Amino acid sequence: MISFEVIKTHSHSSARLGILTTPRGQIETPCFMPVGTQATVKSLTPDDLKSFGAQIILGNTYHLYLRPGHDLIRSLGGLHKFMNWPHPILTDSGGYQVFSLKKLAKITEEGVTFQSHFDGSSHFISPERSMEIQQALGADIIMAFDEPTPHTASLDQTEKSLQLTTRWAKRCKEVLHSDTQALFGIVQGGMYPDLRRKSAEQIMEIDFPGYAIGGLSVGEEKKLMYDITGHTAPLLPADKPRYLMGVGTPEDLLQCSSMGVDMFDCVMPTRNARNGSLFIKGGKINIRNEQYKTDPDPIEPDCSCYTCKNFSKAYLRHLIMVEEILAMRLLTLHNSTFYQQWMTSIRKAIADDVPFR
Amino acid sequence: MISFEVIKTHSHSSARLGILTTPRGQIETPCFMPVGTQATVKSLTPDDLKSFGAQIILGNTYHLYLRPGHDLIRSLGGLHKFMNWPHPILTDSGGYQVFSLKKLAKITEEGVTFQSHFDGSSHFISPERSMEIQQALGADIIMAFDEPTPHTASLDQTEKSLQLTTRWAKRCKEVLHSDTQALFGIVQGGMYPDLRRKSAEQIMEIDFPGYAIGGLSVGEEKKLMYDITGHTAPLLPADKPRYLMGVGTPEDLLQCSSMGVDMFDCVMPTRNARNGSLFIKGGKINIRNEQYKTDPDPIEPDCSCYTCKNFSKAYLRHLIMVEEILAMRLLTLHNSTFYQQWMTSIRKAIADDVPFR
Question: How far is Cα A287 from Cα A280, in angstroms, rounded to an integer?
Fold first, then answer.
């Protein structure tokens, strides 16, 4: 299973420095999990992931269930072995992707019927089925099957949705019997602080080894996301890891770490990289811009990534302009390294007990 | 400049074991040069190239002239520095690509006017211009600007073409003044042995530090390609490197090594990899095939490449079926490693003076 230890709390904020111990290794928190949707963090090998210090990655249950299929992955020894990543993995429940299909999905008390986004075939996922799939994948941390609530939902809709999420969370826990996989509950409640509190109480009542805050960073105003996170995080047990799903920008990671969040994931560093949008200290640049055409310097002179140590912005711009696939890898390496270094600096500020800035 | 030493000749064939010394390092011959068209061997980093023992790579003048432009590359310190490959590079003359545009190209005694394949802009390349561009790129070995003759050309057409190639080769040599770049002449003459002899004599008369056989592997029958290569290679000076352009399959490399060819290049290992076609001992497989869906074994159990050491065929098939770009790199690594190992085994057979099989 897992254990979580808070090593130090930050006197300048609600941030915590922690160690999350899993059967496949320890994770320093607050941590950022690169997203490996289809059994690969796009363009990167496991060696690449190790090169920038990733300690845990995320896999997407929905995608892996459809292709290549969880039975296939189980028969080949599980997701770790399949993708040759022997370190910790967290899988989501598939709920978020299934619900984001919207018109293609039909929700009942029992579960969700939906059509595959790539071949239109019909599928059904319930809390029990999500647990079965995630057990086959074999991640170290797995997520309860929930209904993410749109940020535009009314109070009534949001309450109904959180109650369904609670009933589904119970069903997830009831069918999961594992000594090696830790099941995290997910708090919903939309943009309503009272409903966030109600959801947190119900989910904590079920008792999980970790808790996620779901349904944020889905189109709402940034201030509202911070408000709801700042309201919800302290409701959760101090001795359990808190995971803010799908968040976010470097600034989001810093702000939400300061509210006591321990775990993050987001496609932003990898997806942005593939579009040429690169994180640097103090902002972003787009490497496609004309101004980098003749620029002999690396993206960031003091960055330790392979890309910055070996290539100029002019070369990287050339690669992406002529659509060379090497661009995808080199730019992803930089952004992923940036995110890991960013989390390292957050952890260091907590360890040194200095303000985040 | 370069020097070439034949270390050993094969008593079972006309093959030679050689060392080609360039300002940027030595190359064991017979050698295969991975193709780095746009200042990158597609999907691979310089570290990847070193991992499988590439000693020299090829760059395409036509592509680099158009994007990012030879002036830009020169201003950034040349192609080696631009792509961070400090080892030997050979550039072609641009002729092959320009002529393959066919309807978009207009040929005169002076040179070729053509339209860019990607934006339709008009350009002119002459022997002098090709030398200027290749000097800006700064490769260790550069090629004379020639007219590749279609394999369907008549005797008259072919003779006219080889005479033009000779006049252009003279113009190339006249304008090239370099202590560091070695200019290779190219023998044409199509599918006519007498014209191959005539071309070889004319090109040798100009005197180059190395000679290429051009205009083969362009659609003619395999046997004809072997016949023309076997006829032409021994016409060339024994103490100079012989380069068979654009060839070929592993079998071609072996057959043509046995005829005394020292250098090869081809997009086959890299392009095939991106289509899922993988070289193995005794043949090829396509990793997309259903039969590999659950295959837990590597492509080749005794292959030393990163891909075979770390991933199953089932995983590689999954990656390519879901169009993950990591597939491109992992499969390219395997095929490129296969080619380099193949050349190593050819060189070992010559060194040990045993038959190729």
Answer: 11
* Residue of chain B with shortest Cα separation from A41: B326
**What is chain A's Cα-based Rg?**
20
Residues of A in contact with B45 (CB under 8 A): 306, 310, 326, 329-330
Mean pLDDT by 10 residues, chain A (357 residues): 97 98 98 98 98 98 97 98 98 89 83 90 96 98 95 96 98 96 98 98 98 95 98 98 98 98 98 98 97 98 97 98 98 98 98 95
- R_g (Cα) of chain B, nearest Å: 20
Same domain, B254 and B306: no
Instruction: List, for residues B27-61, the tens digit of each pLDDT value.
Output: 999 999 999 999 999 999 999 999 999 999 999 99
B246, B209: one domain: yes
Q: What's A148's DSSP letter?
A: P
Range of the domain at A299: 275-357
Judged by CB atoms closer than 8 Å, whether chains meet at A76 and B314 is answered as yes
Measured between beta carbons, the chain A residues lying within 8 angstroms of B336 are: none
Catalytic residues of B: 92, 265
Using an 8 Å CB-CB cutoff, list chain B residues near A40: 319, 324, 326
Whether complex ipTM tops 0.85: yes
Q: Which of A246, A266, A286 is where one domain is finished?
A: A266
The number of distinct structural domains making up chain B is: 2
Instruction: Give the whole-angstrom CA distance, residue B84 versus residue A273.
Output: 21
Which of B102-106, B271-275, B300-304 is the least confident region? Answer: B102-106
C-alpha to C-alpha distance for A31 and A225, rounded to whole angstroms: 19
- Give the pLDDT of residue B103: 67
Quote the percentage of chain B above a pLDDT of 70: 99
With an 8 Å Cβ cutoff, the interface of chain B facing chain A consists of 38-40, 42-47, 63, 67-68, 72, 75-77, 82-84, 293-294, 296, 306, 310-312, 314-315, 317-319, 321-322, 324-326, 328-330
**The last residue of a domain, from among B209, B232, B266:** B266
**A68 with B314: Cβ contact below 8 A:** yes
Q: Beta partners for B141?
A: B90, B182
Q: A336 and A240 in one domain?
A: no
Contact B324, A42 (CB under 8 A): yes
Measure the CA–CA gap between A181 and A139, rounded to whole angstroms: 7
Sorting pLDDT into bands at 50, 70 and 90, what band is B2? very high
What pLDDT shows up at residue A103?
67
What's B147's domain CATH number? 3.20.20.105
